[in-house]
Write a structure and sequence with these properties.
The structure is a homodimer of 135-residue chains. Chain A has 135 residues and is of the alpha+beta class. The first copy, chain A, has one domain: Winged helix-like DNA-binding domain superfamily/Winged helix DNA-binding domain (Arc Repressor Mutant, subunit A, Orthogonal Bundle), CATH 1.10.10.10. The first copy, chain A, is built from five helices and five strands. In chain A, the strands form two sheets. The first copy, chain A, has a three-stranded mixed beta sheet with strand order 4-3-5, with helices on one face. In chain A, helix 2 crosses helix 4 and helix 3 crosses helix 4. Chains A and B meet through helix 5 and strand 5 of A and helix 5 and strand 5 of B. Chain B binds a DNA duplex (30 and 30 nucleotides) through helix 2 and helix 4.
DNA sequence: AACACTATGTAATAATATAACATTTATAAG
DNA sequence: CTTATAAATGTTATATTATTACATAGTGTT
């Protein structure tokens, strides 16, 4: 049998898996040092170990970084193999973050050209407002 | 005569003016500690003095923060009184950043509603790609 | 003058992220 | 299966980004 290339790309290393599991089960974005604190019992002791796993997880699209918050959430968009087109809504009161998946929005942004006719390979969009609960 | 409320809001304090001038004449986004280094000869000695001025300048829309780079650029969009609707293109090689002003884009995003019909009061969009020179 | 508000100055420290180097583990090719 | 290569790990130290806390000074209004 053996492991195909596709299978392999889905296999995370030990540290990557530990950190992904933590982020994936969190209802809210996690910060790097919060992650570090929470995985110390699993043997991950240093910031760099966390940042390396985060970098890789972002690279392969398993998680996204919320830039305005320096925090990370799991990708819940099944089509998201790479971190190249992301959109989030962020509640300015409770800090709840939701990944937006709107075909219309992603189509509009993927096709957006600036004045010079330049198209872009990647984007990140963060919307801010008040969530249902906080309104 | 006196100074009206509108006039007052356009007047920057000493530190704010020094820091705005520096950012405004820079061809590229400046980081907080780069700013600090460059204004020390003008008597601004501590990080907090820089961050306070930056906070205010962002609040009144004179500058914008490029979240993915932790850097600041002057707003060149005359209609931008507040930092509530921003879009940038970022070259991944030379790190050149340009503020995008597209009526179509801002209209689309200002009117965007998510699945729950929620509208947002603010957004920030960062496009990534290669600029003309770097292609 | 009294008040409220905004801005400043200063020191200390918190929070976020990377550099450098040694070692180990996983994968693919011969 | 062994050798070459790439990917991941471990560890220490340090760089970068940002805030807390507290004291003081300026500005505009009443």
């Amino acid at each position: 049998m053996g492991i195909s290339k596709i299978d392999k790309m889905q296999n995370l290393s030990k540290n990557q898996q530990i950190i992904f599991d933590l982020i994936n089960k969190s209802p809210e974005p996690l910060k790097a040092y919060t992650i570090l604190f929470n995985v110390q019992k699993k043997g991950i002791k240093a910031p760099l170990q966390v940042y390396r796993a985060l970098d890789k997880l972002v690279e392969i699209g398993k998680i996204h970084k919320i830039e305005s918050r320096n925090a990370f959430i799991a990708c819940h968009n099944s089509s998201c193999q790479v971190a190249k087109a992301t959109a989030f809504s962020i509640c300015e009161i409770c800090e709840k973050v939701t990944e937006i998946s709107s075909a219309g929005l992603s189509k509009y942004l993927a096709n957006f050209k600036d004045k010079d006719g330049m198209k872009y390979s990647k984007y990140n969009l963060e919307f801010f407002g008040l969530c249902k609960k906080c309104r």
